[in-house]
Amino acid sequence: EADIYQTPRYLVIGTGKKITLECSQTMGHDKMYWYQQDPGMELHLIHYSYGVNSTEKGDLSSESTVSRIRTEHFPLTLESARPSHTSQYLCASAKGSATADTQYFGPGTRLTVL
Amino acid sequence: GQQVMQIPQYQHVQEGEDFTTYCNSSTTLSNIQWYKQRPGGHPVFLIQLVKSGEVKKQKRLTFQFGEAKKNSSLHITATQTTDVGTYFCAALTGFQKLVFGTGTRLLVSP
Q: Does domain A4-113 fall into CATH 3.40.50.720?
C-alpha cells in the first residue's frame, strides 16, 4: 500500500474563502501530481512537479496554485473558492525514473463550495 | 493535446459474464498503464504494457497492447462483484505525464 496522504478528506466551505489542500508522501518520490475529477468522470491533470522548486501547470486550466518546497509535501491552494471549484482533488506521486512510473494516489479531498 | 478514448463508457453485466474495455489513441503510444477506481475510492495501478503486441495476465484479467501501439484492451473473464469500479487506461506523454482515458464504468449484478 502506498504511503501518500491527503487532508482534509472532505471540505465544505463558502464562496470567497482561501483553502489549502494538503498532500504528503513518505516514499521519497520526486514526481508529484494534482488531478481534478468530477464524480464518475475522467481525471484531469492540473499541476505537477518533477522535484523540489519545480512546478508546472497541467492540461486543465486551474485557478489553483501549488508549491514544492520539500520533496514529501505538495500543497494546493485556492485563493478564492467558487462553486465551480466543487470537485474531487486527487494527489499522486511517482519515482523520478526516465520512463513512465506507476502513480500512487492519495485518498482524495472532496471539496464542496457553497 | 493528446486524447485517449475508452469504450464503452458504461457496462452492466451479470456476475459470471465476461467484460472488455477498449482504449484508443490517435497517436502511437510509448506505453500504456491501466488503473482501477472503486466507487468512492482512488485509482489504483493494475499494470503497464510497453511492447507492441504485448499480452499480460493477472488471474482473470488479460491486458493487451496493440501491434501498432495505438490501442489497448482489458478483458475480465467471469466477472465477480468485486470487479465493480471504473477502469482507466493512461498513456505517457512526451513530458513524463500521464493522460488518462475517459474510463469505463463496470457494474456487476449478483
A: no
